[in-house]
Amino acid sequence: MRLDWATLLEVLRQSSRVVLTSHVRPDCDSLGSELGMLGILEFLGKDVRIVNAQATPPDLAWLDPAGRIESLEKSAKHPVAVKKSDLLDRDLVIVLDTSAWAQLGAMADVVKDLREKVLVIDHHVSEDNLSDRWFKDTTAEAAGRIVSEIALRLKVPLTEPIATPLFTAIATDTGWFRFPSTSGETFRIAARLVDANANPTAIYGELFEQDSIARLNLVGRTLAGARVSHEGKIITSVVSQSDIKATEAVASDTEDLVNLTLTVKGTQLAVILIEQSDGRIKASFRSRSHVDASVLAAGFGGGGHKAAAGAILPGPLATACQRVAAAVDEAW
């Protein structure tokens, strides 16, 4: 844990032109933390941009109704991609919800060029040398939790555009408040965000009640192919590009599939391998056992938490499956 509140708040106050970024394959914690920080810094009078390596997934676009999140690739809301040279005027780069070079994608080049201006705000255990300035709490249940505390300490009033993304960040990274990382303080923070007009019913509906038939078909295909081992304590599933194409699903439809397999009675470790369009393999680990998911992921250049972690492996899929299976056997 590296929490020097005085230094962090002073850095934020002194900055003028800020760019916020996070990891590739952005999720609710990364996007929610960025949007919450955007609102905080703009209240302080800062010139702020959010720029990620990849565009916001279509199913999470509702989090950003004003279209404030830009990317280094074109998107429906931003037909002109941001150039790396456009960001050289920034006097502060804040990396949220990751501490790994590999997870920054093309934004890694920007971070390297502006490394002396980089500040990392994260809650993951694993880390690279992204910056000399860290603000990290590995006990925090979400990066959104840390951003919420920043708002509180800076006495920034919580508005709905700040509260909604931060509630979403915390709710999703705690599995809608059911993961062991959830504490009494989690609910107290969530209550403050609800008081600021974050609407749990509407947020839940956007997150979990918008599935397409393609997504449901992909879920069924994935769960049907899941295999248990080690006396039913480990469950492994695989999603290939042919599965995605056969169900007419999209890449974002694979999100949260690993958590669905945790509902199988007796499961203590869930593993999923998802083939990406570029041939690489995304591996996700969820642990309720003695096995540290972050250690498993670190073995493949990834990271995360003890209970949840991930990594990207080279293909082909069959080889990646063999490597992961061997690592899981050794860890167990």
The major β-sheet equals: 6 strands, parallel
- The assigned structural class equals alpha/beta
CATH architecture verdict of the largest domain: Alpha-Beta Complex
Which stretches of 5+ consecutive residues score pLDDT under 50?
none
Task: Describe what you observe in this structure.
This protein has 332 residues and is an alpha/beta fold. The chain folds into 2 domains: 5-206, inorganic pyrophosphatase (n-terminal core) (Alpha-Beta Complex), CATH 3.90.1640.10; 214-331, Diaminopimelate Epimerase, Chain A, domain 1. Helix content is 37%, strand content 17%. The strands form 2 sheets. Strands 3-2-1-4-5-6 form a 6-stranded parallel β-sheet. Strands 7-8-9-10-12-11 form a 6-stranded mixed β-sheet. The model has no long low-confidence stretch (mean pLDDT 94).
Record keyword descriptors for this entry.
332 residues, six-stranded mixed β-sheet, inorganic pyrophosphatase (n-terminal core), 2 domains, alpha/beta
Question: How would the blueprint of this fold be written?
Answer:
Layout: H1 5-14, E1 17-21, H2 28-43, E2 47-52, E3 69-71, E4 92-96, H3 107-113, E5 118-122, E6 134-136, H4 143-153, H5 160-173, H6 184-195, H7 200-208, H8 213-224, E7 227-229, E8 234-239, H9 241-246, H10 257-261, E9 269-275, E10 281-287, H11 293-298, E11 303-304, E12 308-313, H12 317-331
Parallel strand pairs: 1-2, 1-4, 2-3, 4-5, 5-6, 8-9
Antiparallel strand pairs: 7-8, 9-10, 10-12, 11-12
Helix pairs in contact: 2-4, 2-5, 4-5, 5-6
Brief characterization of the structure:
By secondary structure, the protein is α/β, with parallel strands linked by helices. The protein is 37% helix and 17% strand. The strands form 2 sheets. The chain has a 6-stranded parallel sheet. Strands 7-8-9-10-12-11 form a 6-stranded mixed sheet.
